[in-house]
Amino acid sequence: MLELALHKGNGPMMMQTIAENQHVSRKYLDTIFASLKNAKLIISRRGVGGGHLLAKEPDQILIGDILRAVEGPLSLVDCIDSPEICDRTDSCATMEIWADIGKAIESVIDHITLADLVERHLTLTDPGSTLGACPSR
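The chain above was modelled as a monomer; its predicted structure follows.
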């Protein structure tokens, strides 16, 4: 998704180019892109000049949306989303803790957009940037 966002405005990107740029297999990307298409986060165009594009503007795509599309529910333990699978749900001392941790994670990923990630990437890859640099002693 970052690769598509960085390429935005330059037309569709071929999957092979994305795979090479990100150092991942084409087969792996096929799986991920199927999930992203189902979630309507990307669109694909066939034929000459075809490839893949973001379906929305980067500032309208949350990192949480991307993670849920690729990974499914983000609960740290299965019983949070499906309490019926555990016969100890009513007396579990840790279930509330797991739920709170999950909410904290979702709070973070649902406030970061793909545009934020692009900005961070550009800042980190800019040779003149001082982001993350240690101050002189």
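The first helix runs from residue 2 to 6.
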